[in-house]
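This part of the workshop introduces the protein records we will be handling. An example says more than a description, so a record of this kind follows:
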Amino acid sequence: MFTVALTGNIASGKSCVADWFRRWGATVIDADALVRETQVPGSPVLAAIVARFGPGVVGPDGTLDRDRLRRLILADPDARAALEAIVHPAVERLTRERLEAARARGDRIVVCDIPLLYEVGDPGRFDAVVLVDAPEAVRLTRLQNDRGLREEEARRLIALQLPAAVKRAWRGGPGNRGPLVIENDGDLAALERRARAAWDELQRLAAAQT
């Protein structure tokens, strides 16, 4: 099994690439989906979040009010660290379970979609890393136009992640190679072409590993 970490700073276009990889044959493990899975009503993780942040982070329907929680962690770095300490171990456990299930099935290429790979994860544990990157000004505009965020809030979200230049410069894992970068500075068609080229390279690397 060939394991790939797919990452990219917020609003980089990573989700589009993940969807294409899935369509082209990859097994995709989505960290954001796992986060939501750990936070369903009645879960230990949601209970721990409420204990730390108060009942105000839960909506009338009993689900987590993600917008309110986001505002809290943007205003307080200690709150963000506390949230990560609650959520990340549970997500890591589920990720390992999904990886083991994929290995047992004999899946060939497994892509772990991890937004905070460099911030809280270990890129070196994967056979390859794919980084989707877009200019910061473009990402800022997307956050405002597509997600309806105020500029100040969008800038704070961008600042929570390491600069893309740091991620592009990383070297590690098999062969001490850096990430395979997909530039997203054009239109959707251009992004798909570049994603396809990256997928072809991943297939080549996976074949060379066997």
Notes: The longest strand covers residues 2-8. The first helix runs from residue 14 to 23. The mean pLDDT is 94.
